[in-house]
Amino acid sequence: MEPSAQITKDSNALLLDCIEKSLKQVSSGMPQVVYWKCEQMKKFPKDQIPNRLEDFVEVLDSLFGNGGLSIKRSIVREIRSNSDLPQADEIANLITASMTSRQIRSSKSGERGI
């Protein structure tokens, strides 16, 4: 993410909460799995996710393949529903942009990327 688009420190906790809620919809232990993969694959801890959203999305794609599309959609919904989160639309649009047309077609046809 470009420096001008970085999220303020005050917003980090709100964004991380949105992400965690969405990951817990998959399973209660899923946030820890994803955070571990962020550290192993991209060398950044959980608290850096707001400033490394592109890397975070790559981790989701690596873990879930096309199956990550529903997780990304859930994260986007959670972000957009949080009226206290500044730059919510910008953040949601960044995640949405990572959803390729191939992934969307595959998810509609019932293919799994897991």
Beta-strand residue percentage: under 5%
Taking all residues together, what is the mean pLDDT? 84
The CATH architecture comes to: Orthogonal Bundle
Assembly of the depicted chains: single chain
> How many helical elements?
6
CATH topology: Non-ribosomal Peptide Synthetase Peptidyl Carrier Protein, Chain A
Number of DSSP-assigned strands: 0
Just give the CATH class: Mainly Alpha
Please tell me the total number of domains.
1
The radius of gyration is 13 Å
Helix content: 55-70%
Instruction: Note the run of SSEs as H and E.
Output: HHHHHH
Low-confidence stretches: 1-5
Task: Give the CA-CA distance, first to last residue.
Answer: 27 Å
CA-based shape: globular
Helix-strand makeup class: mainly alpha
Q: Describe the largest sheet.
A: none
Brief digest:
The chain is mostly helical. It has six helices and no strands. The chain has helices spanning 9-26, 30-42, 53-64, 68-81, 88-97, 101-109.
Descriptive report:
This protein has 114 residues and is mainly alpha-helical. The protein has a single domain, classed as Orthogonal Bundle (Non-ribosomal Peptide Synthetase Peptidyl Carrier Protein, Chain A), CATH 1.10.1200. The protein is 67% helix and 0% strand. It has helices at residues 9-26, 30-42, 53-64, 68-81, 88-97, 101-109. Helix 1 crosses helix 4 (68-81), helix 3 runs antiparallel to helix 4 and helix 4 packs antiparallel against helix 5 (88-97). The termini are far apart. Mean pLDDT is 84; it is low at 1-5.
